Amino acid sequence: MKFFFYKTSTSSNPLMLKTTSEDFRHFKETMQNMKEQKINAFDMHLKTSETIYRVTVQVATRAIYMLEKVLRRGVCEYRVGSKTDRLIALYNRTHEEYKDMLLKMETKMKPSKADFFIESARGNKERRKERKEVKKGAENLYENFPIEERNFWNQDQCPRFKSRRICYRNQNLQSYKSESRPEPQMVEYFPGHIVLQSFFASKIPTSLLSCTSTKHITPEDLRHYKETMRNMKGQKMNASAMHLITNETIYQVTVEVATRAIQTLKKVIRRGVCEYKTGSKTDRLIASYNRVYEEYKEMLLKMEIKMKPSKAEYVIECWLKKDAAEKAAQEHKDRKRLRKESKKAAVEKSSVNFSDGDSGAETDDSGSQSEVEVYTGCRVLKEIIV
Length: 386
Hints:
About 65% of the residues lie in helices and about 5% in strands.
């Protein structure tokens, strides 16, 4: 087995997704260049975003690796700190990195919005820093408590305003010290949603790995959403457990779309040229990447629907309205095309009939006054009116 190590500095590490001073300088230079001359957004993308493309490939590859692991395990009876719990946490962290990478990519594709993105990044950074300071202060305050008060906090009589995470951590430490596996616990992943982690027990079949992805909502999807919402009314479910139970096909769509996106991005990286013509190979690659990216956004929307079933009705209504509008527009185009074709065919037919009528009139003029029948003392002439 061979291992390859690449020595890279922290400044050139493509996985450093946080905004740096170099990024700010790059954004300012890009905006200045955009003011001086009009540059194509795709040209700017290809010129300045090779590292972002590499980050896309690496993060998407990591996401696919984690998703395949979760698909292989596919169980919902997991405890805090278990392998499945760590896999889900790692997938969520990878997804956050992927969103940060998409933000940087959008910033470089649309330099006019750089100021807004930079201000948003600064605000998010400050909020994260404040939350870390508050959390650290709370932990220091807890560690500085006397032993008697600390034992009181560790008991089952923990007040509601006490941090549950510290209680769970102490319980897990005690269970690990006694070399006994912890029992399934009630965990609060987000406010108001407490769930017993051993509530579900289902495995993902391997047959789903060969299923085909669907972009449009089907009647089966509508039925599934209604059943999910009906189940959500009676009891509170863990979002991660719902994710594992209901999103097997969405996981498969994630893997398929990300794989296609990686193939397209690798081709664009290999070419890496900016002087391309309309309809060229690079232009087709960029169009293919944009199409895959749209599919990926639709897949993320469906994943969000299944992770948050309470929003399913609103999103489905919007989606159905959009589909109805697209179908109406397509039907209008088809009717317009059919009218044009029928009108063109009628004009051609009338021209053919007119030419045939002219030739028939010329042949009938010679015998226009021919004797047809003879009655007693009368001669009837045949008259042709053209």
